[in-house]
Amino acid sequence: MTAAGTTDRMTRLLALVPYLTARPEGVRVVEVARDFGVTERQLRSDLELLWMCGLPGYGPGDLIDLSFEGDRVRVTFTAGMVRPLRLTTDEAVALVVALRTLLELPGLAEREAVGRALAKVTAAAGHAADRVTPVAVSVDAREEALAVVKDGLERKRALHLHYYVPTRDERTERTVDPMRILLVDGKWYLEAWCRQAEGVRLFRLDRVDDVAVLDEPAAPPPQAHERDVHNGVYQPAPDSPAVRLRLDRGARWVAEYYPVDSVTPVDQPPGGLAVTVRTADLAWARRLVASLGGAAVVDEPASLAAEVAADARAALARYGADAQRASSNAG
Amino acid sequence: MAAKRAERLVNLVIALLSTRQYVTAARIRATVPGYESDDGSERADEAFKRMFERDKADLREMGVPLETGRTSVFDTEDGYRIARAHYELPEIQLTGEEAAAVGLALRLWESAQLAGAAHSALVKLKAAGIDVDTSRAIPLQPRLDAGEPAFEPCYAAARDRRALSFDYRRPDEDAPVRRHVQPWGVVAWHGRWYLVGLDLDRGAERVFRLSRVIGTPKVSGPPGAFEPPADLVLAEVVAGQVGGVEHLVVVRARPGTAVGLRRHATPLGAADDGDDRLQLRTTEPGRLADQIAAYGADVVVESPAEIRAAVISRLTRLAAMGASA
Q1: SS3 of A13-49
Q2: Interface A-B: count of C-beta contacts within 8 A
Q3: A144-217: which CATH architecture?
Q4: Residues contacting residue A202 through CB under 8 Å, at least 6 positions apart
Q5: Residues B204 and B233 in one domain
Q6: Helices marked H in chain A
Q7: Which residue, among A272, A238, A235, has the nearest Cα to A255 in the 3D structure?
Q8: Which of A249, A250, A262, A253 is nearest to A300 (CA)?
Q9: Which of A31, A327, B32, B182 has the least CB density, counted as fewest CB within 10 Å?
Q10: pLDDT value of position B325
Q11: Which has more pLDDT, A319 or B135?
């Protein structure tokens, strides 16, 4: 198997001459670098390498020839490299599955263009796309709030939300300026400027209890920037207090679902993990630990463990009272 | 990669594309720069052979259709060539709108499993003359999660149609069980990854959650060993198996509390102690028990007995945590 770096560079080297052939007027070197996702320096070294390649004979008329004019480059002799290499199965799968996923999105204005692109890509992929595609992506397209939010976004109107905040177990009301809709790890989110919080917030659509499009225009202020969700939607500040948990098998998903600082396997509980979660919101941590029903043990802070246990004892007392009442009723 | 090696591979591709004849290894060695030249020594022959074998394997791995054969019956050994028609990406033209759709769609893989393949697909489309603007803002953006180590081997086995075995641990089982599967495909269903296939031990279609696969799945046997059902719709198989039986649960909640539970509850009126009686529906009783336990003394389960017991056992474990701390 080839190393990823090798394959990447070869894919690029075999694609560069066709890329320039398709753009006979020449392209700025920075632009080529951007299109191929590499630095300008890397791209120049690729072009220099191609200059040394060509047809057997390898004389002046056989080698690939490039001409630089100012900051632009164009190809003057291709040595027969006029088209890119056909798509591999993996590339065809990546394209076809991505376009199919896009088609599943509700109320997509560009649906027809996506459908046409899918047909053309499938045809160009040839037999790489013939067989049953070994990957499928199914997104939850049923969110009722989605249609309303999307309408507001497209018409650039502010939205009024009734929003459930699970960390505080509270229903809130707020006016927001919508920025975009995201699908992250299977959940829909609205990213918007929240006028109450005066900040950019992500609202999970399955927690929107009611939403209305307002007449007033959406006006996110200039300081409203889209958040980078590459590392998930939970992004605690690094200096937030540390909550140290030991997770047993049933709670190990916590280490994948929430950003955790350190993950160490432990023997007790068997197959367990010790993790550090950073959060400024201890009420949230208390709910998280309680909802894990004992599958996570709090090592730190001790006060958190004590609170969770006290809550549980109070609840058990109610069940005890309940059971007594039930038995006295029976008697 | 070493520049010399990249140069040699590019020259090899150009040389084999430029001929209709099959070119022998000896001829390639004599013409394409960068190969160990023939000085008559066995050592040089061996070095060339190793180099050439590796180059062939790499080109094939990249999808270069390297053909082997003989131009005439008088040839004494096999030669190599690349048929242009099999090498080149067929003609494809996209409108600006269609190209934007492709750019947007590929962002699905941005930080996920097929990111590399998505990137090289994009490079090839650009090389075919298509201007794909990946920065165009469409305010709807799907994205997949990267962290699923079992994806790669499961996907590759499904792609190549090879038998797969792995250790699989269901949450209700203490020890993992070795499963043998003909993998049909991998599905992201509402944010979670699943493998769909024929379970060879049970002789039936099964769905496996990738996060429950322990260790690295192993492939065995030749590629193309089976064919999935022709009418297979992967996502439907998962949708059919993930949903479970619906349970009706009645709880009592203190007034003004348990806002989250009430969002999906049917109110049944007040209990004799002033609490609100609520009816809940769930296909995942374990998750509901988790949620109820987290409300502590604010919510008490009336029925059914199994869920009441499940909540009490969670609370008992939580209460013990304080005792040991």
Answers
A1: HHHHHHHHHCCCCCEEHHHHHHHHCCCHHHHHHHHHH
A2: 379
A3: Roll (2.30)
A4: A182, A189, A190, A191, A227, A229, A233
A5: yes
A6: 4-21, 29-36, 40-51, 89-104, 111-125, 144-154, 253-257, 282-291, 302-330
A7: A272
A8: A262
A9: A327
A10: 42
A11: A319
- Confidence check: pLDDT of A132 > 70: no
**CA A103 – CA B235 distance, rounded (Å):** 14
Q: Is B320 helix (H, G, I), strand (E, B) or coil?
A: helix
Torsion of CA B147, B150, B151, B152, to 10 degrees: 110
In the chain, the amino acid numbered A264 is: T
pLDDT tier at B279 (50, 70, 90 boundaries)? very high
State yes or no: pLDDT of A302 exceeds 80.
Answer: yes
Task: List, as ranges, residues 259-298 from B with C-beta within 8 Å of A.
Answer: 259-260, 263, 289-291, 293-297
ipTM: 0.76
- Hey, what amino acid is at A16? L
CATH number of residue B73's parent domain: 1.10.10
pLDDT value, residue A1: 38
Nearest CB to A11; choose among B120, B142, B159: B120
Sign of the torsion angle spanned by Cα atoms A193, A197, A202, A208: negative
What residue numbers bound the domain in which B270 lies? Answer: 247-324
Report the number of distinct structural domains present in chain B.
4
Facing B185 at nearest CB: one of A136, A186, A249: A136
Contact B187 A137 (CB under 8 A): yes
pLDDT-derived band of residue A300, with 50, 70 and 90 as boundaries? Answer: confident
CATH entry, A242-312, from 1.25.40, 3.30.70, 2.30.30, 3.90.550 = 3.30.70
